[in-house]
Specification:
By secondary structure, this protein is mostly beta strands. 0% of the residues lie in helices and 47% in strands.
Length: 238
């Protein structure tokens, strides 16, 4: 189990999305829910063991490289899950009507970042824009980052982001930063981009010997801070 993503919701419902890792085509994603707490905590018939259960499970081609719930928790928003691997896939979750807390997963979209072929280079990560949930970014081993318009289900822009494989990307936090994202890759650099001016990018950090950087995360409280780490290192750099 390489991937676990917790669903943050206004109704405080506990849900996890878990992706399998098997080195073959057939993999799966499970949605884990938690049984509701008893109205009477002293109820002797209620067991606190095995409180979590599988609410849904669906097949996924190849292991997921990342799983993300939609950050849109507004009233009436669809319950969406995004996965990356060979393609970017969008899934919707809904109650299956059985009355036992289980869900139905439906594939809503399969998005290919290769305009010239039905095949695409493997995706290494995805990032959902929390300020504008209609935008999702993906990174790929083909050196590109692609920004997707989910309503149109097509690429808004695609750019060569690094000199080698791109391993991760993250959106800046804050209403005034919704067009800004950063990425890391095998060339050992952290690069920052602005959708309003893609002619230029800024290299804000490089490892000393250009060792690959694997992941990054933007500080949600202060957009002046980014965290990343490099391959074979026990340190996180801020």
């Amino acid at each position: 189990i390489p991937l676990i993503q917790y669903r943050q919701e206004t109704d405080a419902q506990f849900r996890l999305a878990i992706g399998s890792y098997v080195e073959q085509y057939s993999n799966c994603v499970q949605i884990i829910k938690k049984k509701p707490s008893p109205k009477n905590p002293s109820d002797p018939t209620y067991s606190y063991e095995n409180q979590c259960y599988v609410a849904a499970e669906f097949d996924h081609p190849y292991p997921c490289t990342k799983i993300l719930w939609s950050p849109d928790v507004s009233s009436g928003a669809r319950d969406l899950l995004a996965t990356s691997g060979d393609y970017l896939r969008l899934w919707s979750m809904s109650d299956d009507g059985l009355g036992v807390g289980t869900l139905t997963a439906k594939k809503e979209a399969l998005l290919n970042n290769n305009k010239n072929s039905e095949y695409c280079a493997p995706l290494t990560s995805i990032a959902w824009n929390e300020t504008d949930p209609n935008l999702v970014g993906t990174s790929s081993i083909d050196t590109t980052c692609t920004i997707w318009d989910l309503t149109a289900q097509q690429a808004k822009t695609q750019l060569i982001a690094h000199d080698r494989e791109v391993f991760d990307l993250a959106w800046a936090q804050g209403a005034n930063q919704k067009d800004v994202f950063a990425s890391v890759g095998a060339d050992g650099s952290v690069r920052m981009f602005d959708l309003r001016s893609l002619e230029h990018s800024t290299i804000i950090y490089e490892t000393e010997k250009l060792e690959p950087l694997l992941r990054l995360e933007w500080n949600k409280q202060d957009p002046n801070y980014l965290a990343t780490f490099q391959v074979d290192s026990l340190q996180t750099k801020i």
